[in-house]
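In the current project phase, our protein records have gained a structure token line. A sample record follows, to show the layout:
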Amino acid sequence: MEEKKLTGAESLELISRMIETTKKRMEVGSGNKFLLYGYSAVALSVAVFLLIRFTGDPRWNFAWFLMFIPGMVDAAASRKRRPAVVTYMDGVLSGMWRIVGALFFLTVIVLCAMAFVYGVADFSLMLPLGLLYACFGTSVTGIVIKEPWLVCMPLVGFVAAVGMLVSYALPVDDCRLYWGLWFGLSFLVMMVVPGHIINRKAKRACSGN
């Protein structure tokens, strides 16, 4: 069977159609996904900060591992609502977020290995590193679906993550105590705000139809 060769115009039209299809799916179904991760990070950041502040026990930082729960909830929900037709762009986004999730997991493995080999590891580094991974994933998603809010807002998180890493070397004892709040604020800006904007656009589009 001979394959049909597409002209340049047909190729551009096909790519545009795939982007538009992916964008519509993102608008209808995935604004809530950003809200899930965003609000979870905000709530957990405030809770961990207050618990450490009032108890003085840094072991409450291990509560940050609860951030894996929204990921499991999202994965289970995604399996149930998987579309019948998956475009190339859908596959790109899905694969990219799997890589982001793998980076989170590998970072935990590396820190655990360091704790086992050297007897010490600073798990607080998960906050700036995890924030960088999330910023990357969110911005790439915005580029693919052509949503400017998702492209630009993660820059706030990037600045916060770099600030955390720079402050790591500063001789300030309680500097890392506020990392969690920076983390939560970054997720509020780069996921909660765009998530609500995407949902509002989806409602407007549906009402227009």
